[in-house]
Amino acid sequence: MPLKHIEEFRDAKLAQNLVAKINATKTRHIRLMEVCGTHTVSIFRSGIRSVLPPTISLLSGPGCPVCVTDQREIDAFIELARIDDVILTTFGDLMRVPGSTSSLQKQRADGKDIRVVYSTVDALEIARKNPAKQVVFLGIGFETTAPTIAAAIVSAARTKVTNFSVISAHKLVPPALETLMTLEDVRLDGFILPGHVSVIIGVNAYQPFFDRYQIPCVVAGFEPTDILQTISMLVEQIKTGRPRLENAYQRAVTPEGNPTARKILDEVFELADASWRGIGVIANSGLKIREAFAAHDAQRLFDIQVPEPQIPKGCICGDILTAKKIPPDCKLYATTCTPTDPVGPCMVSTEGTCAAYYKYHV
Fold first, then answer.
1. Spatial separation of the C-alpha atoms in residues 99 and 342, rounded to whole Å
2. What is d(CA 101, CA 121) in angstroms, rounded to the nearest whole number?
């Protein structure tokens, strides 16, 4: 959205003032990363990049749940679909993600019972209605969705739904931030921290990361004015040389987060190392199901053998997730790889950087 259309923002006057303030602030060239796929889409859809000075670059990070799911995990999901008497349940974005040799969409076309659901409640209900089948839910995503999946596991245990299980491939945001700061060829000057995740974990969850790296960090909401406010706060921190951990989404995010959600996460899950697409293994960045709920842990229940995964040739999704490159740098982008025929997950997911570039930037 060009500057002349800024009056379409919900709070146009505030947006105009923020744009003017950002453009009036003189800084060196700075690189800010949004660590949330929803922020990426909002930034593109609202045209925020077009109203920023050339000295400010916005980079998309590993904030798309489908995109950061490792190739081996995708292949494991596909192997699960091939097991007899298994009903696989999943959110829709996973269906078209290419595995090494197939996809969930192709497996369903071949007759495997794979169902798209809108919540874990739906998956649990499928298990109740199909007692002769094993119903497996594919648990991906960050701290935002993990509590609902934990609640489904608790409900299954309490109501004795013995044919419901989850394969946990969840990822945690703070450890990923730590790793991003150590990667070669990745230079960042500030973080636009995720809003939805922060509702659950709270601002205080980022304090150890901030204390260690002293890099400007601001939690952002999702309205264009929220994001502009966050950018303005980050620019001010960088200009003054006084980095802080701040919250620009106080109407939804508190210092301590959501205690109820955090409690059920701790009840069901424990920390585990996790492999991220484009990054590799990050210590204690994943969640595995505790022994107390082993009866609902698909990784314990099924013998899933996955060969060495094959990354799609030419796909640079990993580099895009770490801001080493942008989608137009990929030779496949908008030619071989499009939303209707995606090669990598960054073009599949509605929150993927490649999909956002293609829809709003081409």
1. 12
2. 31
Question: DSSP letter string over 8-69?
Answer: GSTTHHHHHHHHHHHHHS--S-EEEEE--HHHHHHHHHHTGGGGS-TTEEEEE-S--HHHHB
Q: Which amino acid is located at 222 in the chain?
A: F
Among 273, 151, 272, residue whose Cα is nearest residue 200: 151
Query: Kindly report the CA angle at 231 between 142 and 205, in degrees rounded to 5?
Result: 35
Inter-residue contact 273 to 282 (CB < 8 Å)? yes
Domains (range + CATH), the chain: 66-172+257-301 (3.40.50.11740)
Q: What ranges in the chain are assigned the alpha helix state H?
A: 12-24, 37-46, 65-68, 71-81, 104-109, 120-129, 146-158, 173-180, 195-201, 207-213, 224-240, 259-268, 298-301, 317-321, 345-348, 353-360
Contact criterion met (CB below 8 Å) for 240 and 201: no
Backbone φ and ψ for 230, nearest 5 degrees, come out as: -65, -45
Q: How far apart are CA 314 and CA 296, in angstroms?
A: 38
Query: What's the rounded Cα separation, in Å, for the pair 156 and 125?
Result: 10
Q: Name residue, tokens 């060196």.
A: 28
The tens-digit pLDDT sequence of the chain (362 residues) is: 444 455 555 677 888 899 999 999 888 999 999 999 999 999 999 999 999 999 999 999 999 999 999 999 999 999 999 999 999 999 988 999 999 999 999 999 999 999 999 999 999 999 999 999 999 999 999 999 999 999 999 999 999 999 999 999 999 999 999 999 999 888 999 999 999 999 999 999 999 999 999 999 999 999 999 999 999 999 999 999 999 999 999 999 999 999 999 999 999 999 999 999 989 999 999 999 999 999 999 999 998 889 888 888 899 999 999 999 999 999 999 999 999 899 999 999 989 999 999 998 75
Token pair recorded at residue 249: 């989404």
Residue pair 140/104 in contact (Cβ under 8 Å)? The answer is no
